[in-house]
Amino acid sequence: MNAAGLRAFIAEAASGVGGTFGFCIRAGGDEVAWNADQRFPLASVFKIGVLIGLLDRVAAGRERLDTRVTVGAGDISPGSGILCELAPGAAVTVRDLATLMIIVSDNTATDLLCARVGIDRIVESLRRRGYRETEIREDCFGYFARVVGADPDDRGAENRAEVARRLDAGQLIPGADAGDGSTPREMARIFLDVVEGRALGRAETAVAVDLLQRQHAASRIPLLLPSGTTAWHKTGTGGGAVNDCGVIGLPGGGRLAFAALSRDVPEDGTLAAERLIGRVARAAFETVAGGMDAGGRP
Q1: Exposed (0-12), middle (13-18) or buried (19+): which is 267, by Cβ within 10 Å?
Q2: For residue 214, what are the contacts with CB-CB under 8 A and spacing of at least 6?
Q3: What ranges in the chain are assigned the alpha helix state H?
Q4: What integer pLDDT is reported at residue 200 of this predicted model?
Q5: Is residue 248 classed as helix, strand or coil in its secondary structure?
Q6: Please, what sign has the CA dihedral across residues 93, 99, 104, 106?
Q7: What domains, with CATH codes, occur in the chain?
Q8: Residues 6+ apart with CB under 8 A from 269
Q9: Which residue of 29, 34, 51, 297 is most buried, as measured by CB atoms within 10 A?
Q10: Do the strands 181-182 and 241-249 form a parallel or antiparallel pair, or are they unpaired?
C-alpha cells in the first residue's frame, strides 16, 4: 500500500470539507492512519456494538433470533427507521430487529435490542474482546432526550412525545455531549474482526456478515467503488457526525478495513462529507487493489 500517497490524497481531499475527519485503512498488515487515535462521536455506528452484544447472548443460549417481540406505541424512538411508521402491535423476531437496526438504522429496533441485552452487557462484550476505546453509554432515545434537555430515563408516552416535538423544532442544547464514541483505528479493527470471524463464533459471524452486507445506505463507502464490489458496513449521522465504517471486498478475496469518523460537520455539509468518504474509500481500494500480486494479495 502506498501509505504516503494515500495520506497526501486524504489531506488534499479533506481540506475543503467542513468538519474534522479521522480515517483508518488496513489491508494485508499495512495501515494508513489520519487522526486515527482521536475520539469521535459514533452516531449510529455504535449499533455494531449492539449487534455484537446481542449475538453474544445468542451464542450463550440466553437469546433466540426467532423469538417474537411485539412493538407497542410506547416503544417508538425518534429518528430513522421503519417500525415508527407501522401501526402499534407489529410482531417481529429478534433477528428482524437486528436486521432493521443494521440495514436501515432503525432506532426503535435498536432500543428494543438495547433493552433486551443491556448497555452494560454490550460494553462488557466489547471489553472482553479487547476493545477499550469504544464507549457506549446510552441507547438512541437516551441520546435524543439528553440533547434536547429531557429526562432520558422517562420512557413514558408524554416524555417521548415531548422529545420528538423538541427534535422536530430543533431545540437542541448547545454544546451537548456527543455521547457514544470511539477512534477510527478501533472501529477498523472491530469491523475487520467481525467480518473475518475473530469476534464471533461461526454461526453468529454468518448472521453479522449477512446483515452488514445488506446495508441500504450507499452514499459513503460504496459511493464510488467499482460495480459489484462488496462492502460490509454501518453508517452513522447526527450531532455533526457523518460516519461510515466497515470492510471492503478486494479482487481475489482479500479485504480492506475502512473506518471514517467525523465531528463538527456543518448542517449543510453532509453531502460534501459523504463524497469525501466515498473518494477516500475509492482511493484506498485502488491503492490496495493496484498493488496486489497475481494471487490477490496486497
Answers
A1: exposed
A2: 99, 102, 103
A3: 3-14, 47-59, 94-103, 107-117, 119-128, 140-147, 157-168, 184-195, 202-213, 270-290
A4: 98
A5: strand
A6: positive
A7: 3-137+179-290 (3.40.710.10)
A8: 17, 18, 19, 242
A9: 51
A10: unpaired
pTM of the model: 0.94
Grid cell of 196 as nine digits = 473475518
Q: What is the mean pLDDT of the chain?
A: 94
Residue 272 C-alpha cell reads as 460534501
Buried b (16+ CB within 10 A) or exposed e, 213-241: bebebeebbbbbbeeebbbbbbbbbbbbb
First to last CA, the chain: 7
**Is the Cβ–Cβ distance between 225 and 233 less than 8 Å?**
no
DSSP state of 173: P
pLDDT in tens, 156-186: 989 999 999 999 998 988 877 777 899 999 9
Contact 160, 75 (CB under 8 A): no
